[in-house]
C-alpha cells in the first residue's frame, strides 16, 4: 500500500501480458504507463523501442531483471509468479474444454479461448493462480461475486458463466468475445471521431445501466476491459469481480492492485465504490477516446493517483477542437471530484449521450447492425418490481402474486402473426414551449393507442409495451425520433407502421401534426394536420386522428364505418382538467414514480367523480400498498362506472371484479373473458396475462385442470414470464405431469440467468418424482445462488422424505434457533409434521399452542393466501391430540377471514372439519348433520370435484357404523377426484387411509395392501399426516402376517416401531406391533 499522508491508494495490476520494463525487465500490461514492479515510466516520455522495453506483448526481451514469470526481488510479485503452467493447443481440460489458443495472462491467471464440447460453443476460460484457492472463505466470497455478476444478461456485457474446480485448480468460464480491446484500438488509431466515440460510449453506458440496476459495480472500468468487434459492437469485461480480486487476498503488503489512469478520487482514498465510481472511470475512458490521451499523466502511479484526487482535468475541447461542447461538458461532469456532482446514474449519462449524438451531422453518426436482444425484468434501486398496465382503463393483475414472481425474467417476445397492419404510436414532440402542454406529449399517445386498440381492423402496440420499448432503446425522454429510431421501435414491437408527431402553437391555437409511415422504407402513408382552438379541443381531436390513421391504411369505407369506436369523450373524463390529471398519473406510473400517482388520481376524481379509469389506477396503488379493503372499494366504483370505459377494457374490469367476488360469480368471469377475447388483439402475447388469469379460474375454482392447462399453455407460448411459468408448472403438477413440469423449468432456466427460485421449484418437482438426491442437489444450488436466504427448512424437508429424520430435525431446529418470522414458522410447521410422523402428538401440539396465541408467530400467518396451509395443519394436530376445543378455535378463526372469493369453499371445508371432530368424538348424529350441510354447500360450487369432502365424511360415518363396503364405495368416489400431489398441504393420506381400512375390514386385503402402499409412496400428501404414513406400515405388517409372510410382516412392523420409537405413551398400535414382532421372532 502507498500512503499519501493518512490516505491509502490501491492501484490494481492489469491482467494482460504486455511490455517489459526498461529498468527491471518486469513484464507489464500492454499499454501500461508505469512498471508494476519498480514504478518506472515505460510509455509517454520514454521512447517506445526494443531498447526501452516497450516491446510487443509476446516478447520475452528485456534490458534487465526478469520477466513476469521469472523471479523478482519484489515479494508481492511472487503471487503473480505462480500462474498455472501453460496448456497446449488442442489439449482437453477438465474433460470438456478443448483449448484453442492462449489469449493472455496476468495477475489473476491465464485466459484461453476454448471449445466447450458439452455445450457446443466457444467460450473464454480463465485459469486462476493457485494462491487464490488457498483460503476457503475467500473462494466463497469470490464465488458469490461471480454469481452476482452472472445475473447480468446484456449484449454490451461479457456474460460470466461459472466458477469451476478441477482438482485443486480453479477456473472461470465466460462468454468468448472476439475483437480487440478499446485501449489497443486507441493506440492504433489515435483519437476517435466523435461519432465513433459516442457510439462506443453509448454501448458501454447501456451495459453499465443493466449492471447497476442489478446492483453490480465494476470498480475497475478501463479501456482494456472494453472489447470492440469488427462491426463496432462493444462488450464490457470482468463486470463485478474487481471487488472479488481484492477479497481473495490480492492486496498483500506493498502490492499494486489498480490502474491509476482511471481511478476515481474515492478509490484513491480507499473509500467504498458505488455506481458513480464507474461513471468517473467512464468519463476517463471517453476522455481518452476523443483526445487520444488519458486525463492525467505522471512519472509514477502515485503521482497519477494524486492528480485524480487533487487536480482538475483539462477540458477535452482544448485538446481536440472538433469535440462538441456538450460532449466536453459531459466528460468533465463524469470526472467531478465529488461524487454528488457527477451524474448519479448511468441512465442520465446515456440520455445525454443520445442527445449529443442527435446533434451530430448524419454523416458522423455510427449506425450499428440490428441485433436481437433478450429482455429481462429489472429491479429499481428501491427493490420494487415493475407492474404492467394492459390498457388505459384495465389494471387487472393479482398484485401480490405478481410482485413475488415477477423477479423471474421473460423470454424474447414472439413476433405476432395476425395478418392485420400493426402500428407503434410514439410520443409527441412538444414544440409549443408551453410547460402546461407537456402532458400531451405522452397523453395524446395514450389516448390514440386506447382508441386504436378498440379497432378490429388493426393491431396497435399497447401503452405498456410502447413505454417498455422506448425505455429499452433509451428513447423515452427523446424530444424527437430519427428514422433509425423508428426502425428500431418497429423491429422491437413487430410493427409495420409508426405514428409520430408534434404539438405546435399558432397564436392561441394548438396545431397537432402526425405522420404515419413505414419506417423501414421511409414511405409516408398519411400526413395529418389538425388545429385546436384551445387545449380543451385536444382530446376530441383524438377521434379525428384515429379516423385519419385508419383511412390511411386504405380499408374499404364500409369497414371503416362499422369499425368506428365510441370516442374519447364518451369513455373518459368529461373534463379536460380531470383527463390531464389522469394522464399525468399514468405517466408517473409508467416511470415508477408511485408517490405521485394516488394524489393525481384523487384530483382527477374530485373534478370528475365518474372517471372509471382513475378509480382503477387508484385501486392498484392501494392494493400495492397492501390496503386491499380500500382497493376492493375502489374497484367496486370502477365496476359501477364500467359503461364509461372502452368495451374491451370494460370486460376486463368486469372479469377482475368477479375474480374478487364470491364463487357464485364464477360463470360471469368466464363470460367477461369470452367477450374480451372476441375484441382482443389476435396477438397472443398481448392477451397472455388475461389467459393466465382465466387459467387460474379453471385451476382453482372449477378444478378443471385440462382447461386450465389449455389457457396457461397458450399464455406461456406467447409470453414466457416467470409468473406464467409458475402457473404452468402448477397445472402440470395437478395433472401428474411431473416430467413436463421439470422440462418446463429447465428450458426456462437454460434461456435465463440462474435463479434460486427456479432451483427451489425444481427441487419440489424432484420431491414429487421421489428423486430425493436430485431434490437435495437443487436446494444446495439455490442456497449457493442466494446464500442470504434460509434454506435449512427446505433442506430438512428433503431429508424428511428420504427417511433421514435425525438430519431433518437438526435442520429444522437450527432454523428455529436463529431465524425469525416466516422462515421460523415454516420450520415449525415442518417440525410438527416430523413429530406427527413419530407419534409425538403432544410435542407438536405444545409448540403449536404457543405459536397460535394472540401475537404468536403463526397468528400472523393465518391470513388469506396462506390460511388453509397453516389452519389445516394446526387443526389436524389438535384433532389427533384430542384437543377438540383448540381444533374448533381453528375453525372459528378460518371462517372469520375475509376470503370473499373462497367463502363457499371456506364454509365447505370447515364443515368437513367439524364432521371429523364429531367422528373422533364418537358423535354420529352430529356428524350426519354436518354431512348434510356439507353436501348442500358442495352442490352450490362450480367445481364438481368439491363433493369429495362430502363423500369422504360419509365414508367415515359408514366406517364407524360398520358398513365397510358402503364406506369403501363413498371413499372411492372421494379419492377418484383428488388431483395429483402438488402442494405442501395436500390431504391425500387423509383420504387414502380410511379407504384402506374399509377394504381391510371388508376382507379385501389385496385392495387394502395396495392402498396402504400408496400412502408409503406419498411425498407432499403426507406432510401434515405423518402418523397415517407411519401406521400404514403397521397395517401392512398385519396384512403380511395374515398371509403367513413372516419376513415381510417383521419388516413392516420394524419400520413402524422405528418411526414410533419415541411416540407418546398409550398408543395401542405400538404395544400390539411389539408383541406381534416378538411372536414372529
Task: Give a description of the structure.
The protein is α+β, with helices and mostly antiparallel strands and 1081 residues long. Among the domains are: 92-175, Phosphorylase Kinase, domain 1 (2-Layer Sandwich), CATH 3.30.200; 180-364, Transferase(Phosphotransferase), domain 1 (Orthogonal Bundle); 413-571, 3-Layer(aba) Sandwich (Rossmann fold), CATH 3.40.50. 52% of the residues lie in helices and 9% in strands. The termini are far apart.
In short:
The chain is of the alpha+beta class.
Q: Which class best fits the helix and strand makeup?
A: alpha+beta
Look up the CATH topology of the domain at 180-364. Answer: Transferase(Phosphotransferase), domain 1
- General form: globular
The low-confidence runs, each spanning 5 or more residues with pLDDT under 50, are 1-18, 43-85, 244-257, 370-417, 859-868
Q: Bin the helical content.
A: 40-55%
The largest sheet has its strands arranged as 3-4-5-6-8-7
CATH-scheme architecture of the domain at 180-364: Orthogonal Bundle
**Tally of helical segments:** 46
Give the rounded overall mean pLDDT.
80
Question: How are the SSEs ordered, and which strands pair?
Answer:
Blueprint: E1 2-4, E2 7-9, H1 78-81, E3 92-93, E4 97-105, E5 109-116, E6 121-128, H2 136-150, E7 160-166, E8 169-175, E9 180-181, H3 182-189, H4 194-213, E10 226-228, E11 234-236, H5 242-247, H6 265-268, H7 275-291, H8 301-310, H9 316-319, H10 325-334, H11 346-358, H12 399-405, E12 422-425, E13 429-430, H13 439-452, E14 459-460, H14 463-472, H15 483-493, E15 497-506, E16 509-518, E17 523-532, H16 538-552, H17 557-562, H18 568-571, H19 576-590, H20 594-607, H21 612-624, H22 628-640, H23 647-659, H24 666-679, H25 688-702, H26 705-718, H27 722-734, H28 738-750, H29 756-768, H30 772-785, H31 792-802, H32 805-818, H33 822-837, H34 841-852, H35 857-861, H36 867-880, H37 884-896, H38 903-920, H39 924-940, H40 948-961, H41 964-976, H42 988-1001, H43 1005-1016, H44 1026-1042, H45 1046-1059, H46 1068-1080
